[in-house]
Amino acid sequence: MPVDVAVGTARGPEPGPDASRTKARRNRRLHLVGAYTVLTVAAVVIVLPLYITVVNSLLEEGQIAQQPPPFFPIHPQWHNYSTAWNQGHLGFYLRNSLIMTAAIVAAQLVTSILAGYAFAFLRFPFRNTLFVVCLATLMIPFEVTFITNLSTITSLGWFNTYAGLAVPFLATGFGIFLLRQAFLQIPKDLQEASMLDGYGHWRFMTRVAVPMARPSIAALGVFAFLAAWNQYLWPLVSTGGTTPLDTVQIGLKQLVGQQADQINVALAGAVIAFVPLVVILVIFQKQLVRSLTAGAVK
Amino acid sequence: MSTAVATLEGPGGPALPPGPSRRRRRVKEAALAYLLVLPAMAAFGVFVFYPFVNNFRLALYQSPPVPGLPSHYVGLHQVGQVLFSNGYGFPGSLLTTIAFVVMVVPLSIFFGLALAVAAHRRLRGIGVYRTIFSSTVVSSVAVAALVFGTLMNPVVGFLPWLGINPHPPLLESPTWALPSIAVMTIWQFLGLSFIIMSAGLQSLPDEVLEAARIDGASSWTRFWRVTVPMLSPTIFFAVVVGTIYAFQSFGQIDILIGYANNPARLHVNVLVYNIINTLTQENNTGVAAIMSIALFLVTLLLTLLQLRFLERRVHYAR
Amino acid sequence: MRRPRLRGTAAAAVAISSLTAVSALGLAPTTPLPPAGAASLGACPLKALSRAKGPVDITFWESMTRANATTLQEITNAFNSSQSKVHVTLVAQAGYDDTWQKYTAGLSNGQLPDIVLLEDQRTQVAVDTKSFLPVQSCINASGYSTSDFLSRALAYWKINRTQEAMPFAVSNPIFYYNKLAFQKAGLNPNDPPSTLAEMITDAQKLKAFGSGMGLKLDPWHLETWLATANQLFVNNKNGRAARTTKATFDTATGLQIFTDLDQLVKSGDATTNPASGASEFDNLLGIGSGKYGMTIDSSADLGTISQVLSSGQYPNVQLGIGAFPVLNSSIPGGIEPGGSGVFIPNRVPAVDQAAAWQYMQWIDNTQSQATWAAGTGYIPIRKSSTETATVQHLWTVSPGYKTAFNQLNNGANDAATSGSVIGPYSDVRADILNAEQSMFVGNLTPKAALAQAESAVDATVASYNQRLGAS
Questions:
Q1: Whose CB has fewer CB within 10 Å in chain B, the N or C terminal residue?
Q2: What does the alpha-carbon distance between residue B21 and residue B83 come to, in Å, rounded to a whole number?
Q3: B126 and B268 share a domain?
Q4: What does pTM read for this prediction?
Q5: Distance (Å) from the C-alpha of residue C106 to the closest C-alpha of chain B?
Q6: How close A66 gets to chain C, by Cα (Å)?
């Protein structure tokens, strides 16, 4: 619960009712101003790199190397964005990222819901062991497994394909953990009531459990989307770079390399890559926070 | 699945009359369960556990310097060479990575905490500030690298305006490249750090903080003597997450430094960057596998160490 | 319960580390040294092409940009419309490194081109993949005459008398300077320095009058100056007679080169910039802005830099071109060629290989090389091309383009001036660059830096040979 800033009222002797009230009000205002100043300065510092990026993306070629650097584009060159889109193939890259991410998110949601359900509601031998196995996958970073994964998808003929991009990420221990947690919250009487009503597992899962676990499922979905969209290592090695199948992240790297002197175009590309995510952040902030803090707060 | 649907029993199952029918239902339940976990387990088996174990096999084979030629068995000979000599740059990478973690994690935690405390107030418009502070969590390494790469560019960046004209430029300087990339990583990690710290703050009970204030403690004392100790589980979690994240850095270095003749390349050779280049540029699968195993062990060790030592310091509210 | 567990873990750790340390001490098994060039020629399947019914479609992986890309497309279009048996599609790659990475990935995943443009330093490693058809095979099979070519241009891509690939985009380093800056410093603007020693004194004078020299940190300084002094860079005739096993540059000549470069940089007369990244063209752009009065760079940049400097943005510049300042004018050395050559993979269908050979002959014929030279600034590698109106006109209008050609055409023609063939060439160059950096920025003396370079190169080459010989 946020702490109110009305500090100072409890300190020291009270010189007199009116004087103390004005003093308290002045103190409060000072504190408010101080608080807002600190917050604004911090916000400016954090947003500044992004702001400069947007400004630079709208500059003309001749202006980019200007010193002192312009803080506001007087003649915004919106065509930089269309150049990034066309010559920089950003449209393709966005599409590729979208296909890969959609596949990964869908797969992760399905596998996590199914496995989470089993761990939460079913009894079977080795249940705890298997759950620990799922959690153990979180200890093995992707950087350790990608070598063999690369040769696996190559031998399956999936090098530089959408399948190859998505397939190593079909399941996630984090998702299973999150959803099992969510399913465990469903009260037992509800289970028993639906059972009495004649629900089998399938109906219970789809009609009761999944709808009730919607917040966690949304949280997982947003988290999985972000993680998949922002991936760099796997798209780089599984497509070999410079291919039509590049995702946005790899596309940005190509953009930097090819348009070294046209950095305004490259930055336009970065803005294009970043803006959808900011939109997602604003809309799904609550879900995102929930998934990211799943392990932090009990 | 159809058998499970057909039964009148739902999840868990109530007390049943003992006997063969109960056993049969248990078997059906188990069968259903295995079916449900099968997709995830299969995925883990093929793409997590098999690759992990395969590294140990790959480590025993020396790869040819060009792809397409066969590897041959050398046993543990290669392992010693990689881990204990600087032939493949492993000890150097390890040190560089540790230095990078030290540069990134403490500052990220500190700033995240500071921001979280600053934003932990009932002020008008605080939501906007909180969104801004969390915004960097959605940036990818590619975007962040591009953004900061531009800022630090000697021609188009902002440093000349501030009077800072380093020669060689920051991202090509053996001394300053790694710290510059650390600054970028701190910025990018700040969003997550803020979110974690915020969540932690919001879970703190007001009464203790209130009591401290009424007792006359100053904000500073309150912060250090009360807030931080109570937040220690959250801080601890953030440190673990941050350390593992920083340890696995790769994308930003690949974009900002690349592999070509950048004189700073040898000084930013963090572990994952080394592994990737060993695999793709030198075609040295065996050596890359060895370094991956080492990466896994170091990450595991770090996590266990933190669990052991930091947890002792963690103050659990009674 | 903690102590016993720790003890157990510690014991295990000690055991593992001692085991691996012991095995590291163990001697590596000695492995045979593979030959330098291709082991066998292979067959050039010319008949497959003559038997082919319809047009054969082939892909060419190349990494040309801008004007160079346009010129290549012109030449390719001319080929495609001149006959109907073969149709070539250009597939642009992001750069030389990228091309090589994709090619090597292609060896596992099967996505290979029919003809590929590879950077000069990849020659030996390309041969080592055993995945290319030596061009000699097609030269023999079709009775192709190579007498018209500049002998050093061919020699670069010839290992042990086998032509592995054909040269295509050939360049070498030349000297760029600002005549006005020279005048201002009291130097003769029509007399650029012809030796390294002269270059150093000129840099001093330029610095005294406000400019100085831009020195790009290219990794080929050492080998190029060695070649001008007719000295080998690595043993076994620069890797051409047999596979190279060690470096041979830790000599008095090598020391002189390092000492001179060190003096140039440490005195402040020259300012360095990296050969890649944001500051890649600083040395050339610096001539425009007046920061530098002279620099060394590839002749391949001449076209671009001429355009930039005459754009009107740089008023105080009159671009002059000179020959690469040799180490010692009394030693008959030569400038080694560089650039890229075209290779034919042998894992693509036979008919595609034959089609690739047809295309290769076209892009290296007299008229194509003339067009190529005029459109890009690369050296026309056929003597007959230099006699065409296209090239004669180019050389009259911009005599600077002739400099690179003269450098390749003149001088000694032997192993020392034909460039080196080394498997881990890019790592070797990186070793040399590191040593130079330790000298420029670190505290190493030129002697120590040279020794460091040699031992690093020896280790790199030995490791590569051992891995290759063992497979």
A1: C
A2: 59
A3: yes
A4: 0.81
A5: 9
A6: 14
